[in-house]
Design a protein that fits this description.
Helices cover about 45% and strands about 10% of the residues. By secondary structure, it is an alpha/beta fold. The protein has a five-stranded parallel sheet with strand order 2-3-1-4-5, with helices on both faces. Bound molecules: 3'-fluoro-3'-deoxythymidine monophosphate (FDM). The site of 3'-fluoro-3'-deoxythymidine monophosphate (FDM) has 10 residues, from helix 5.
Length: about 220
């Protein structure tokens, strides 16, 4: 049986990731699963949710980073099962967010290599979309921005730089790469972005699917 594709959508806060993952999932249904990280429903996810939403709930940056990674490992076997059963998995955030957000904190010792370590061995996506909005004021005007930890323009700027550092380290960015597609979504309608994603996904689906997994 052909294995399914793991299609990941990454980006800064409020760039439309969740809308786009949902639209793509709807198009691939019923042969698809949607997974969002952090998954706030698990025990570990509930702790993460508390950290993100309650300002007086403090944890060392290292612990928070390991919780986000542990949250991915919680779902890793399920993920592999879906893909081997031929289902496509559409994913909202993953390892790249994990490294970009944690390393943007500039906590001593938490460089890219340190941040990647606990995620080593997780399945790599077959396609990775990065939604980039070059106009941060556009992002910050989106509904709900500022409600959670990390949602300040200054921090988002650092995270953006870190995302590109991660892409340089893991995906050879800016050299052409089969996996990574950076989409500039500034001033683009939801439909236009969805169409662009869908045409790239269709192109990938038309090709012979990779049989082997690659891992971080
Ligand atoms: N985030 C998300 C991290 O800091 N590390 C991670 O590994 C992941 C998956 O959590 F600010 C951050 C990114 C964001 C916050 O994400 C919650 P959503 O997509 O807004 O729920």
């Amino acid at each position: 049986m052909k294995r399914g594709l793991l299609i990941l959508i990454e980006g800064l806060d409020r760039t439309g990731k969740t809308t786009q993952t949902t639209l793509l999932f709807e198009k691939l249904k019923p042969n698809a699963k949607l997974i969002k990280f952090p998954d706030r429903t698990t025990c570990i996810g509930q702790l993460i949710d508390k950290y993100l939403t309650e300002n007086d709930f403090e944890l060392p940056d290292q612990s928070v980073h390991l919780l986000f990674s542990a949250n991915r490992w919680e779902l890793s076997q399920e993920l592999q099962r879906y893909l081997l059963a031929g289902k496509h998995v559409v994913m909202d955030r993953y390892v790249y967010s994990g490294i970009a957000y944690s390393s943007a904190k500039e906590t001593s010792g938490m460089d890219l290599e340190w941040c990647l370590r606990p995620d080593k061995g997780l399945i790599k996506p077959d396609l990775l979309f990065f939604l980039l909005n070059e106009d941060p004021s556009d992002t910050s005007s989106r509904r709900g921005f500022g409600n959670e930890r990390y949602e300040t323009l200054q921090f988002q700027d650092k995270v953006k730089d870190q995302f590109f550092n991660v892409f340089r380290a893991l995906e050879n960015y800016p050299k052409p790469n089969d996996r990574l597609r950076v989409l500039n979504v500034a001033n683009c309608s939801i439909e236009k972005v969805a169409q662009e994603i869908w045409s790239i996904v269709q192109e990938k689906l038309a090709k012979e699917p990779p049989s082997e997994f690659t891992f971080f």
